[in-house]
Amino acid sequence: MSTQFTGPRSVEWKETYIHILNQQKLPGVTEYLELTTKEDVFDAIVTLKVRGAPAIGITAAFGLALAAKDIEAADVSEFREKLAPIKDYLSSSRPTAVNLFWALERLSCSIQYATSVNEAKTNLVHEAIQIQVEDEEMCRMIGQNALQLFKKGDQIMTICNAGSIATSRYGTALAPFYLAKQKDLGLHIYACETRPVLQGSRLTAWELMQGGIDVTLITDSMAAHTMKEKHISAVIVGADRIATNGDTANKIGTYGLAILAQAFQIPFFVAAPLSTFDLQVESGDDIPIEERDPEEVRQISGVRTAPADVHVFNPAFDITPHSLISGIITEKGILTGSYTEEIEQLFAESHVN
Ligand code: MRU
After folding, report:
1. Cα–Cα dist 169/78, whole Å
2. Would residue 31 count as lying in a domain?
3. Domain housing 273
4. Same-domain check for residues 62 and 174
5. Ligand 1 center to 80 CA (angstroms)
6. Same domain, 154 and 108
7. Contact (Cβ atoms closer than 8 angstroms) between residue 339 and residue 246
8. 112 and 157 inside one domain
9. pLDDT above 70: residue 113
10. How many CB atoms are closer than 10 A to CB 350?
11. Which of 32, 43, 277, 339 has the most CB atoms around its CB within 10 Å?
């Protein structure tokens, strides 16, 4: 099987700048931006120019490596002192996706044994590149592992964008669709539009169409009717943070889909790399949920759709309890229900986090 994949890259390291696909402008405009400062990187993450848990982690890692190049320090210990506030600053860009903190921590660890400032700067760049390289392989493996769950002609529902542009390549929840296309398995995907900022309609529909994958767009309110009328055989979503009991934070609306899936007795799958598990968090109750600007709800793509001063509640994520999750698909295999034990074993075997 060919593993050639030619989908768009969301983030690229260019030595003096970070090249990103501006996801805020899609699908109308395909624009690339050059991030040259830590403030550019912070802004790109906050304003969703780059988004999706793994892509946020990769961009922040490149951002730290880039900003570190300008640090002037007499020795490594002074270098570390000057790096710490930049790491804290980038960490404060978004609170929910754990990949952000995980990637920045990996960079910090990479300079633990550096003996010169130059060595430390080089290590940071190498580690950030390594994170991106590993993410691509992890996503490909997630896709590979997920394929066994589907059969030719299945109609599968997703929400948000857990695709190639949310990761290094392939995506998590969307990875099996790229691999299925290579194998001519003919999976069909129903993408929920994902209000308020429409990652489903703007990004997932665009990305899958670019890849020649069969996608049908629905509004979020059409999910129940579509499950029934179109004989949806599974739901697959990405994740921003997974607690050690399997509770999963993902884009707002995911929890509702999981409840519907249970009502229709449809399997509900989460696809995520090990970098999305938070071993410090025992349950979803302890995952911080980002609340975003009320204007995202009062407007659609800049057009006012609600009274300007109406009260708004705008959580960007929700928590799906592990009891509603039929399986968590990782690069190491599929977890199937005894999540606390399976996650413990997975990390004991993998020696990560
Ligand atoms: O607010 P976003 O667009 O960053 O939210 C993204 C999601 O919820 C994705 O499903 C998740 O990060 C997984 S991306 C592989």
Report:
1. 36
2. yes
3. 149-350
4. no
5. 31
6. no
7. yes
8. no
9. yes
10. 13
11. 277
How many domains does the chain divide into?
Answer: 2
Whether the Cβ atoms of residue 207 and residue 174 lie closer than 8 Å to each other:
yes
Whether 61 is in a domain gets the answer: yes
Asked if residue 159 and residue 135 are part of one domain, the reply reads no
To test ligand 1's pocket by mutation, which of 21, 51, 132, 237 has the most ligand atoms within 8 angstroms of CB? 51
State residue 1's pLDDT score.
Answer: 42
* pLDDT tens profile 162-212: 999 999 999 999 999 999 999 989 899 999 999 999 999 999 999 999 999
Q: Identify which has the larger pLDDT, 203 or 6.
A: 203
Same domain, 229 and 81: no
Q: Tokens 């900022």: give the residue.
A: 197
Residue 151 CA to residue 250 CA, distance in Å, equals: 25
Q: Is the pLDDT score of 353 beyond 90?
A: no
Express each pLDDT in 214-235 by its tens digit: 999 999 999 999 999 999 999 9
Q: How far is CA 132 from CA 60, 66, 92, in A?
A: 11, 15, 21
Based on the fold, state whether residues 77 and 189 are members of the same structural domain: no
Which residues, judged by CB distance below 6 Å to any ligand atom, belong to the binding site of ligand 1?
A: 48, 51-54, 97, 160, 162, 166-167, 171-172, 199, 238-240, 250-251, 316
Catalytically annotated residues: 240
Distance from Cα 241 to the centre of ligand 1, integer Å: 10
Q: What is the average pLDDT score of the chain?
A: 96
Is 161 marked as binding a ligand? no
Decide if 51 is inside a domain. yes
| 239 known member of a binding site | no
> What's the rounded Cα separation, in Å, for the pair 4 and 288?
37
296 and 164 in a single domain? The answer is yes
Q: For the domain that residue 106 is a member of, what is the CATH number?
A: 1.20.120.420
Q: Are residues 179 and 96 in the same domain?
A: no
* Mean pLDDT of all residues in 305-328: 98
Domain boundary among 90, 111, 139: 139
